[in-house]
Fold this sequence. Notes:
The complex is a heterodimer.
Chain A: E1 3-4, E2 8-9, H1 10-18, H2 29-40, E3 53-61, H3 64-74, E4 81-84, E5 88-94, H4 100-111, E6 115-123, H5 127-141, E7 147-150, H6 155-162, H7 164-178, H8 181-192, H9 197-204, H10 208-222, H11 229-242
Parallel strand pairs in A: 6-7
Antiparallel strand pairs in A: 1-2, 3-5, 3-6, 4-5
Helix pairs in contact in A: 3-4, 6-11, 7-11, 8-9, 8-10, 9-10
Chain B: H1 5-21, H2 27-44, H3 49-69, H4 74-94, H5 96-104, E1 115-122, H6 126-134, E2 140-141, E3 147-149, H7 153-167, E4 172-179, H8 183-199, E5 205-207, H9 213-220, H10 222-236, H11 239-250, H12 255-262, H13 266-280, H14 287-301
Parallel strand pairs in B: 4-5
Antiparallel strand pairs in B: 1-3, 1-4, 2-3
Helix pairs in contact in B: 1-2, 1-3, 1-4, 2-4, 3-4, 6-7, 10-14, 11-12, 11-14
Amino acid sequence: MTTVLDSLPLNDVLRDILSPFDLPPVEDVATRRRLARTLLSGRDNGFEGLALAYAVIAFCASTEDGAAAVLDAVRDNAEALVLDGVRGGYVLLPCAQDQHAGLARELYDRVGGDVWMAVAWAPRRDLAAARATAQDVLRIAAGRAPGVYELRTVLADFVVLRQPHVAERLARMIEPVVAQQPLLDALRAFIAEDGNRAAAARRLDIHRSTLDHRLRLVERLTGCRPASPRALLTLSVALTAHSCPEVPLPH
Amino acid sequence: MLVDAGRLLHEEFLAVYRAAAADADGWEDAAEAVAHRVGSRLVSARVPVAQVVVALRSTDRLLTETMLDDGGDARALAAVGTVLAAELMSAFCAQDDGLADALFAGDTPDDAAPFYTVVSVRGVVTDRVVSAFRKRGPVFPATSGHLLLPVAEAVALPLCREVREELGGEVWFCLAERPAARVALARNEVDEIDALVASLGRPPGVYRIDDMLFESAVIRTPEARDELGRVVAPLLANPVLVETVLALLEADGNRAEAVKKLFIHRSTIDYRLWQIEQLTGLSPVNPRDLAVLGTAIALSRTNSLG
């Protein structure tokens, strides 16, 4: 056997150069999970087979089966690293910049159902920040329809979660609306229907003029006119600031 | 505590006018001392200077006439009014000198109020604003052009709206409240709000952080700032799309209205909106995404997105 470089066998050297994804086998779930945890906590252990950058996909599901379906979808992927919890977890996929949203959507399409995914991208050494971002994005997404979310789609809510004094002011502003269920329902429906009055009234099974009246009351209580996109964003973010429960993600 | 300026002046000044009417020895010193004491009290009770002027005028007329009727010394009575007025007014002006600058520099004088509302002024010379505020209560101008009002933001807000109305024209006020020891932070805040108001092209008015919560929170959150920069970069390369976003935002998301503003065909705007979504990943048809796009454009114009 030919030996090169401090008497390492040539085959070993060639393997290190040519196959960068030389991770523990997919059957070794525990080792791979440890590796995912190490990476997500921001420690790059210099493991030979790691990619330069990853998409961090935080996910949660309304049921344990839903979460299991996500894990099943990546079980045979030798490149995917998984840190799983009961109803949620993280999937790390090697990924080039700007490809992460597509990658997450692909995964989501294969799973479907009541699953929420938040995706962020980072070079390997910045994965802790990407994890924190994905976690906050998922918290916000969990209050919306199932699907794939990234920072830009929940940006306003995200900055408010990160600025507690702003969140406090907004939560105080929306408090009188939250205290009146019919107003809260009207506002939520109007937001969920992207500002479409007719659709919001249908969703609530109320007359359109009833909805208009309730939205006017919301305006009187908050000073924000729901028909204005900027004000609707403020109202929507205020609802997030008022209540944004934690999501079941592993530590 | 409410102070009845007219009654206070009458009670305190009666003895002084009597002494002057009799042209008693040392009435001038006594007048100065009394006016100084009463002036400080009125200032600390935050009695508006305009109210004091009215009270002073009527008190002077009443006491002078009474003393003249009793055969008082006319020359001394004429002089006493001037001495009292000058000393009284100096109490209102003395505080102005350097208090605002001292507070901004981090010094908190003993006689400082517990908290202040800092006001930034744009679109009008500061002197005019100062005198408009002074008619309504104490105001402390700083050399930086900011004003300090020794009241809470909730009180300062209607006051600022009133003054702005009186001044008329294109005037912007931004305000923020902080405890006396931290007014420098309030100044930073109003400067930040004012920069945003200016670059976002908001109409003349009175603004607080509440009106700019989202924008200022974005600026303070590095991840969000970077992301917004990435969102908007492909848009900025295409002025027509930028114009479309802004027109749609101004029309509250109403496409028919935006079409009229832009002098384009309905199908043209639909195509542009599709392009915007392809480039940014945000849908301008969704009001919240539209607001985010508008903010991204505005912040990029302030160079806040790096």
